[in-house]
Write a structure and sequence with these properties.
Length: about 500
């Protein structure tokens, strides 16, 4: 296995002109749109002369290119300092290029450039940050578990020269922000892609601690004994079926100035979900390696907040457990006491996420946050309701809508969903305060949200983001999204943190 674990992001430089030398091996990535008379380059006026633009546009016409969104063409153009050109279509944008169109185009380009080490791009003239995020996220690979037999011989994309109208300090800061954001998403993907053999609660906690300490965060890790002593009945109940015992990790970033807000983040960290005694069918059970996708995104986000020095406090509370069937596992019908005292009848051991999250939410609320964002691969019902790419966002009406709007803006496309009052009746238990599953088959995603709401302190604005399918792409790669871990909803949560930092 390769020595440096995880994905290494490429180095990025910003330049206001096409470098005359040093890029002989590079590919120049250029945006094209569908013009009236055929494909037309955009954003390249400052970097290419009319002759080069002519040569590119007539080559594209000869290839019957249209400039449709995502269309790629590799060209060799004489007289340029680069080895080749890759054009990427943005479609009929009418002069407006939404950030995610640029991000997806950049991602598609990066995926097409297998084995190319250096990219010079003019997509960044249109939107620097979107172009960089798309290139880095599209160039992501995960090779930690390949031996020399199948590991790629090349290093992938290692260097990006982003063309921009200037290379002033503010432009460089924007580029650095994009690299930090993409690196955070890559961190979340790495965690999700690490197999359950190698990522179990104690190991996950250790890696989260190392990342947190490197970013200057306060770190606290509770092991199974500390969890039992402090009354974390949900985390202990779910975790006790495994020989690899649970943890609770707390990562604190303090950046608030006087009057600055405090945001709590909570993420589901089930390192593998067999279902427990209520065991899942064998088909696709291996996808449950992604059941810690919420935890991965939360850890990456608090580290990113610190890197970007946001003027708010961010406190991540991350419960980690492996849900296994065994002689020590909890049984359907067991009653446990969640942290804070609410009792729960565990009617289905496969509804384990809400049990560990309820404990974590109560603990997170003890810090008196202004806002709480919780995210989890919580229900198969998310996929039924919204499909593979659309997270469901629930919670306090106003904050939920704000989170969904910002999620749309960054291209992660979370969608607001309601938490109807009457669903609470479906969680009645004959022996305890609550049952962990509904007596009805309806609205499984919303019922899980209703369960979690019982544990959120009254004065905390909260949002729950169900990422069951969006955290893990089981289909083919698209745009800047590879197969496997996607890193969703890291960019949504960071956008919310930035918005809170700016607007309270
Ligand atoms: N981790 C699963 C949810 C899930 C399903 C995530 C598919 C990703 C893809 C969760 O723990 C679970 O098993 N939920 C149950 C809840 C049910 C028992 C109420 C489900 O959705 O079936
Ligand atoms: Mn489950
Ligand atoms: Zn689960």
């Amino acid at each position: 296995m390769s020595s440096a674990p995880g994905y290494q992001a490429p180095t990025v430089t910003v330049s206001s002109s096409l470098p005359g030398r040093g890029v002989a091996e590079a590919v120049l990535v250029l945006p094209v749109v569908t013009g009236d008379t055929g494909p037309r380059t955009v954003g390249v006026d400052a970097v290419l002369d009319a002759e080069a633009v002519d040569a590119i546009e007539s080559a594209l016409s000869a290839l019957n290119a249209t400039g449709a969104e995502g269309q790629l063409h590799r060209l060799v153009i004489a007289g340029l300092p680069v080895a080749s050109v890759l054009t990427v279509g943005l479609g009929d944008a009418g002069g407006e290029w939404p950030a995610d169109t640029i991000r997806r185009a950049a991602g598609a380009a990066a995926r097409a450039l297998d084995k190319v080490g250096t990219v010079v791009t003019a997509l960044s003239v249109l939107d620097l940050e979107a172009a960089l995020e798309g290139l880095i996220l599209g160039g992501y690979r995960f090779t930690d578990f390949r031996s020399d037999k199948t590991a790629p011989k090349d290093k992938g994309l290692t260097k990006i020269v982003a063309l921009a109208s200037d290379a002033k300090a503010a432009t460089k800061a924007a580029a650095a922000r994009a690299v930090d954001v993409a690196s955070a998403v890559a961190t979340a993907r790495d965690f999700v892609n690490t197999p359950p053999s190698h990522l179990f609660p104690a190991e996950f906690a250790k890696q989260a601690k190392a990342l947190g300490e490197a970013a200057g965060l306060e770190v606290e890790v509770l092991d199974d004994k500390a969890l039992t002593r402090a009354g974390y009945g949900g985390i202990v109940g779910v975790g006790k079926g495994s020989s690899r015992l649970p943890r609770l990790v707390r990562l604190t970033y303090r950046g608030a100035k006087r009057g600055g807000k405090t945001v709590a983040l909570v993420g589901k960290g089930v390192t593998f979900d067999t279902g427990g005694i209520s065991i899942k069918p064998a088909a696709n059970m291996h996808h449950m390696t992604s059941d810690m996708g919420g935890a991965a995104a939360v850890i990456a986000t608090v580290v990113l907040a610190a890197r970007q020095k946001l003027p708010i406090d961010v406190i991540a509370t991350v419960p980690m457990a492996e849900n296994m069937p065994s002689a020590t596992a909890q049984r359907p019908g067991d009653v446990l006491t969640q942290y804070g005292g609410i009792t729960v009848e565990v009617l289905n051991t496969d509804a384990e996420g809400r049990l560990i999250l309820a404990d974590a939410i109560v603990r997170a609320c003890e810090d008196n946050p202004d806002y709480l964002i919780e995210t989890s691969t919580l229900t198969g019902a998310q996929t039924v309701a919204l499909g593979a790419r659309t997270p469901g966002v629930m919670g306090s009406d106003e904050f939920r809508d704000r989170v969904a709007r910002l999620s749309q803006a960054v291209g992660e496309n979370g969608w607001a969903m309601p938490l109807p009052e009457e669903l609470k009746d479906d969680l009645k238990s004959t022996v305890a305060d609550l049952a962990n599953v509904s007596s009805s088959r309806y609205a499984g995603m919303l019922v899980a949200g209703v369960y979690l709401r019982e544990f959120v302190a009254e004065d905390v604005a909260w949002a729950h983001i169900d990422i069951a399918a969006p955290a893990y792409n089981t289909g083919g790669p698209w745009g800047y999204t590879p197969k496997g871990g996607t890193g969703v909803p890291t960019r949504t949560m960071f956008a919310v943190l930035e918005d809170i930092a700016a607007n309270g």
